[in-house]
Amino acid sequence: MLDTLAQQLLLGLTNGMVFALIALGYTMVYGILEFINFAHGDVFMLSGFFALTLVGALGLQDAQGFALFAQLALVLVLASGFGALVNLLIDRLVYKPLRKAPKLAPLVSAIGVSFVLQNIGLIWGALPLDVFGGGGQPAAPKSFPALLPTDNLLGDAALTLQLKDVLVIGASLAVMTALFLLVTRTKLGMAMRATAQDPQAARLMGVDVDRVVAATFLVGGGLAGFAAVVYALYINTVYYQMGYQNGLYAFTAAVVGGIGNIPGAVLGGLLLGLVRAFSDQFIGAQWQPAVLFGILIVLLVFRPSGLLGSTAREKV
Amino acid sequence: MSTSGTPLRTSSDSPLLRVRKLTLRFGGLTAVSEVDLDVQPGEIAAVIGPNGAGKTSLFNAITGIYEPTSGEVELDGNDVRLPMTGKVVAGWLATGLASSLLFLFIAAGIDATWKAVVKAHPPWEFTISGAFSDLFAHFATGNALLMLLFSLVGFAIGALGARAVWLRSRRTPQGVALQGVARTFQNIRLFHHMGVLENVLVAMDRHLRRGTVGSGSAAKSALDGRFPHGAWLDLGLPAVCVVAMAGLGWTTGDGVDDETLPSILLLVMLGAALAWLVRLTRRGTLTGSSRVVEAVARQEAMELLKFVGLDKRAGDLANSLAYGEQRRLEVARALATRPKLLLLDEPAAGMNPSETVDLMALVRSIRDRGVTVLLIEHHMRVVMGISDHITVLVHGKRIAHGTPEEIRRDPKVIEAYLGADDGGH
Amino acid sequence: MTTESLLLIFAVLSPIFPVFDLAGEAAGLQLHLDQRLVTIFVYGILVVALNVQVGYAGLLQLGIAAFFGIGAMATGVMTVDKYPFHFGFWGALVCAPLVAAVAGVVIGAPTLRLRGDYLAIVTIGFGEVLRTVLINLENITDGPRGLNPVPEVWTPSWLRDWIGAGDAGEANLLVMYYTALLVLVAAVVVLKVIENTRIGRAFVALREDELAAACMGLDPGRIKLMAFAGGAALSGLAGCLYATNLTTTADPTNYDFNNAVMVLCCLIIGGLGSLRGALLGAALLIGFDNVLSPLLDRAIQVAVGDASHPLARFSSWRWFLFGFALIFMMRLRPEGLFPARRVAAELHDEPEEA
């Protein structure tokens, strides 16, 4: 029993890291634009496809030792860059012209973007590459090769700790620390926080709000790209609808932590990952969406500002 | 001269609005601090103060938009909160019971319960009483402790949730409005994309619902002495349609031997539905009485528009009006709720001198209609010209209260206004 | 658009499809317009229902498919042979909207304080919860298989003989067709009337400025619940017709988020708040999806010869259509193709700074 608990704890932690990485993208964009970037989950999904294509192109499934890790790092960097670029492109092409439109417009557009990206993912999955099973079955999940050794690092202990667990947690922590430093220690981060607090005032104080928004989308997309590789390494599949559900879960995480709040997103992601692991274990995986969204609903109803968020009053 | 802490009139006549030690805090910021304010029926009262003195916050607390951190707001001796009646408590209990039932079924397994109750027998052996005995039998097989626990938790969630929601909505803007307080907003908040007349009609919603529209301040029912021709058809036709449809389902669901009765029901259903739809199309309202009420309400709304001088613009969109006209439309809309007390938030803001003079006349004629007016204004000429009493707020605190003459001579006020930037531009 | 002209459209539309079907048969195509038109009508009702919530009251509700599913499932439970209720189609047509409306109130009540994007997310969440529940309560819903057979619309034999001129299959199709059309027309007529009454005005006032409306004595909670219940009831009605038309309650994945977005898409293309727009949006998009794209699929297959590759089917590209439709409409013509007067003005304004 204790072993099961520990195992679920570990699973929840790794899942939570992935949620947290995606949730950061939601929460940063919301903090600055007060807008739910509905397509964020699909940037995550497309980055997964990009990573899988790279893995195929580099022949990573056959690589060993140092070459494997060097190339894996390359894939991580490139996929992050890909996610960042896609996210920025979406913002410039779709959201930016709607900055002054009523709130409904960007949200509906984001839903539209989400569907376009999903269709791109669907068609991407039909590419006639070996890693995609030669195409032909666009909707089927594509298996992402298990690149990392699956030995138990703890030897014969009942608790299984694989290299990928360590990698997911370590890499995510590293990225989150970097993000934290970016936001708290750099000029850009200061500008971000200022803009999130009061765009008008920030603009008057000489902050280039447009640049800050661009940076936010870049960072958010990069985190999603990073999360995609981590997720694919961990779950070993990529498919065109993985962005929708994981995106919604991650959004839930962002809300749980208090949307717009960066530490909150991490906390929310971890909590949600743990809840998911334990509900899968004790309630049943088939009830997972019901449990997780049930939490979202209850939380939004009773404490819409989340665990770490502060309540805002409407100006009259 | 009277200054803070000593209300001008302490006589026995009861004020229409009575604010006592009202405090409003946002986080660390105290917007309003222990403010007292009395407004007597039939007067024009004003609240003045430099920018950021907490005037609008005070209005928001009075109108139920903000919940005061502490202090009292009373209208006509009534604290403008929903009373906790037996009906409310019954509502909590009912919500709790419904929720506990749901939790009970979850504990017993919804799927398994259905299987045990509905699917246990072939459909033709199903009876209601049998279903209940199956249900209890199924419950008996479950873990009693777990089911009890779930029911209790469910009851707690439902009842406490309903109570929390009720507590949160005890004092709401609509509740205050229904007690007879109407307001305008500093930044005009019309329904910009509705027509001018529609804006006024929206504010008459309560009277439309109750049928208490028509001229005169005593809300007399437009339907008094009139029962519109064929009113029973308005409810009768759809009811007949639905009942016939249900009957049709009842008689045909199991297969049919004799088609006579179902055929009749089908024809009755179609006939009633078509007749109802044709009636609706012809008349344009859901019921005959609502048509009468609507017509009277439109008349009343037009009178209000005429009162503020906008009757010629009744058909235009609200956002096509000039700034001063929008302010007057807001006043007409507020008056349409038939308030006892009208709060005007900087009514002269952005107006030119001639519009300002018109506004002063308008405020006086509102008072002459029997509506008490409380206004916030920067414009000293307006305030001094029309107010019976003035309260001065600085940094959320009341520093003076009195007639215009007293306020003009009050050294504290002079100091506050010389220290502040504007006052009488 | 007056309701008289609606009735006119009804009169004109009703005899149309047999002509096209015959022409199609002559050209060697199996059009099956009758069944596909019913789908368009069903979605028309759904779009009109969403219009009550999103168009009139401004509540961005993305869980409409859940109420659609509830309506279909209620119909299934109340009519199929394996359950003892046997209410028949007409009984289900009364009950399905009631069940859906109750669900609408239950779901609506706790979300009353939420606005805008938060409401959107919560309703998506509800949709997902419901879909999960429908799939998992296999003893009740038969899971992915769906409950079947849902009985056809009961009509007396003399009416059948008269409508189908003796052909039983034809009579079936025609009865379904007229029933769906009649329900749609009734819904539109009633909503058209409500638009110009106290309730219609209250919806719009709420959308424009909730706080100002509350300060005028309107109860936002009550109005929102009315919008929720009304829209849900209409969706339940649509669900009942949908299940009857398919003769099964179908796989619960039919009532997922994609479906809700499709309905939203119809509404936005047609024009938020505009009944005419809602109907034409449904006709355009669902018509494309159900009538045109199968035809084009066949054309492609004929042209390419062997077109077994999934990408050679329109269904693999349809989310581009919906996605780009949403993006371009929001950018270029946010009021939709056939806008309502009020919304058109609203969406072209810049929001005022508070």
Largest β sheet strand count, sense and barrel closure of chain B: 6 strands, mixed
Low-confidence stretches of chain B: 1-12, 421-425
Q: What spatial form of chain B do the alpha-carbon principal axes imply?
A: flat
Element pattern of chain A in H and E:
HHHHEHHHHEHHH
- Give the oligomer, counting copies of the same chain as homo and different chains as hetero: heterotrimer
Number of domains of chain A: 1
Largest interface (C-beta under 8 Å): B-C, 69 and 66 residues
Strand content of chain B: 5-15%
Supply the number of structural domains of chain B.
4
What distance separates the N and C termini of chain B? Answer: 25 Å
Rg result of chain A = 19 Å
**CATH architecture heading of chain A:** Orthogonal Bundle
What gyration radius of chain B follows from the Cα positions, in whole Å? Answer: 30 Å
Shape annotation of chain A: globular
- Mean pLDDT of chain B equals 86
The level-1 CATH class of the largest domain in chain B: Alpha Beta
Say which CATH homologous superfamily of the largest domain in chain B is assigned.
P-loop containing nucleotide triphosphate hydrolases
Describe what is shown at a glance:
The complex is a heterotrimer of chains A (316), B (425) and C (354). Chain B is α/β, with parallel strands linked by helices and 425 residues long.
Structure description:
The complex is a heterotrimer of chains A (316), B (425) and C (354). With 316 residues, chain A is mainly alpha-helical. Chain A has helices at residues 2-33, 40-58, 65-95, 104-124, 163-185, 187-197, 199-204, 209-235, 242-257, 262-282, 288-302; strands at 142-143, 237-238. A two-stranded antiparallel sheet of chain A has the order 1-2. In chain A, helix 1 packs parallel to helix 5 (163-185), helix 1 runs antiparallel to helix 8 (209-235) and helix 9 packs parallel to helix 11. The model of chain A has no long low-confidence stretch (mean pLDDT 88). Chain B has helices at residues 55-62, 86-108, 110-117, 128-141, 144-168, 173-178, 196-203, 205-210, 231-252, 260-283, 288-307, 323-336, 353-368, 380-386, 404-409, 411-419, and strands at residues 17-26, 29-39, 44-48, 70-75, 181-183, 341-345, 372-376, 389-394, 397-402. Chain B has 4 domains: 17-81 and 343-419, Rossmann fold (3-Layer(aba) Sandwich), CATH 3.40.50.300; 86-168, no CATH class; 185-225 and 289-322, no CATH class; 231-286. In chain B, strands 5-6-7-3-8-9 form a 6-stranded mixed sheet, sandwiched between helices. Chain C has 16 helices and no strands. Chain C has helices at 3-13, 16-26, 33-56, 64-79, 88-108, 116-136, 138-141, 157-164, 168-195, 198-208, 210-215, 220-246, 257-270, 275-304, 318-332, 341-348. In chain C, helix 3 runs parallel beside helix 9 (168-195) and helix 4 (64-79) packs parallel to helix 6 (116-136). The interface between B and C is large, with 69 and 66 residues.
